[in-house]
Write a structure and sequence with these properties.
It is a single chain. With 312 residues, this protein is mostly helical. The chain has 15 helices and no strands. It has helices at 3-20, 26-29, 35-56, 58-61, 66-94, 97-103, 106-118, 123-140, 142-145, 152-178, 184-212, 224-252, 255-260, 263-277, 283-303. The two termini are 18 Å apart.
Length: 312
Amino acid sequence: MTSRPIFLGVLCALAAGLLWGLVFVAPVILGDYPPAMLAFGRYLAFGVIALPLALRSRHRLASLERCDWWAALELSFVGNILYYLCLAAAIQLAGAPVPTMIIGTLPIVIAIASNMHEGILPWRKLVPSLGVIGLGILLVNQREAACLDGYGAGIVLAMLANACWTWYPIRNSRWLKRRPQISSDIWATAQGLATLPLALLGMVLSGLWFASRGHFDFPLGSRPAVYVGMMLSIGFLASWLGTLLWNRASQLLPTALAGQLIVFETLAALGYAFLWRGYAPGLPTLAGIALLVLGVMLGVRVFRVVKPVPER
């Protein structure tokens, strides 16, 4: 595989990770909002943002086949709504650090799962970068690991979110490589449109449910301006633009390498968390960050010399 696609793919994955890291902040800022209202609100905003983009690109969207729309629907449900519903609930139940640690294992889990399927790289070449990333994750989260005590429900939900996002990039990458005529922006818009009815129905039903029990001031809660602003921000930046960038990375990179680059989301979430808390990370955390970056560099170097295997 040539250097230019690898370089562009890594840049796209980096940008996507920086945007996706924002979603770890919303449940902390809006801690008084039910997780369902955060998940459905985010993806309702994603769908609404996709509408004018779809109108502008209606002729290109018309080229999508029924199977594409079904794929977009399943990707949207599992990788968008179910994933963020579980993640937001996990963060509110167990605090941000522990779910971040569990989600932080995604680079290793995705790389292993995708390489088992694709067989693009001998394991002896993949293990060094995964080992360095794994050690980096342990160091970054060494304080949080001590907190794995009474947060059973939050941990289970974080693990379910991890499973959702292990499945999503592998399925998404395989679909895009089977359908190379689909551009990354059209596929992001299609997923936004597929998400819209699911998010709208979920928001109405869950909002009415919480309101009937006095847990939520339906439809926008006790801080409507903050809620709407946050949902629109992450709906556009993390959902639409982040999906567009990740789609492009998925087209340019082997899935086993793209999986390792999920580490950028972990690094971004960690950086935003320290900014929110207002203090700098300690030496073990900084060492862990350095190892994460080193692991990514090792992975990129290995894949630069690998020839792509046609999708079966």
